[in-house]
Amino acid sequence: MLYFKKGKKGFTLIELMIVVAIIGTLSLIGLRLYTGQQEKAKLAIIKANCGTIQTVIQGNMADTDYNVGNASARVTAAINDIDNAAGCKNPYTKVTGNDGVIYNDAGTLGDHARSHRGKVAIASPSQDHFIIQGLDKDGDLFGEVFTARN
User: What's the CA gap between 133 and 71, in Å, rounded?
Assistant: First the structure.
């Protein structure tokens, strides 16, 4: 016959199962918070891209080298400057440069498809005024509206 010692050390099966369940629950909560933070970070990158494009367009409008007659040429010059510099990176496609920009010379930002997610929309209602806004993961306009004027 086997006799058990009263001072036996170790965990019971139920204690181990409870610990595993608690760790699993905490990891699921952490994972949900982490994925939400990733989306917020991507939106912050898009907002930063909008600010960068606004600064470059504003600089191009003030610079005599880019004092061109139409809005489309100014935006093209600004996009070329962005490509030549560090570049704006689309957080969804990981592409750097002018692939992250949509330009509409009709003057309105309008609706965009899901294929344009993460891009920056630029509209020019007049020759010396630009409206700049980011597109979220669904291709919808979001956040602040940046403007650039001559």
Answer: 17
State the residue for tokens 């982490």.
34
Determine the Cα–Cα distance for residues 145 and 54; give it in Å rounded to an integer: 10
What's the pTM value of the predicted model, to 2 decimals?
0.69
Closest CA relative to residue 125, chosen from 110, 144, 111: 110
Residue 103 falls in which region: left (phi positive, over 0), alpha (psi -120 to 50) or beta: beta
CB atoms within 10 A of CB 28: 10
Neighbours of 114 (CB within 10 A): 11
DSSP characters over 63-124: SGGG--SSHHHHHHHHHHHHHHSS-PBPTTT--BSGGGEEEETTS------GGGTT-EEEEE
Distance CA 104, CA 21 (A): 53
DSSP conformation class of 57: H
Q: Which residue has the tokens 């979001």?
A: 142
What are the tokens at 81? 């400057």
Tens-digit pLDDT profile for residues 50-97: 888 888 777 777 775 555 566 677 677 766 766 665 577 888 888 776
